[in-house]
Amino acid sequence: MNEVEIQTVFESVGQPDQQHIQLWIDTALDDYGRDAEIVVRIVDEQESTELNEQYRHKQGPTNILSFPVDVPEGIDLNLLGDLVICAPVLENEALEQNKCLADHWAHIVVHGVLHLLGYDHIDDKEAELMENKEIAILKKLKINNPYTEVNDK
Length: 153
What we know:
153 residues, Collagenase (Catalytic Domain), four-stranded mixed beta sheet, 5 helices, globular
């Protein structure tokens, strides 16, 4: 079983509980082939901004930051890495994009897990591959394609 540790340093209405986050991560890791450990940290805009500037050299907060762990060869460790999610940014995006907040949370968690697995969206080909993977995982969760369909609130 995948181990998920949640660190909630910012709380707001509509945040998912441990069970939902666990389900989304487990579904994203269906094809991974072994158990994994992931830390999910839910933060405010200030912490997100600081981390985004420090590690990505980009201004302002972002919805999610992924920090994969590079485990040295010969070390048997199932830690995939950390996900830092900015709840206020997610809430604003869901509102602006007319998306169900829970579905947007699921999408962003899945997106972050795929980053931990090495997926990226730097170029168009990689982005398409990653988006298709996200869409397939979200479909298993009965969540509409976040890239083309407007979800009812």
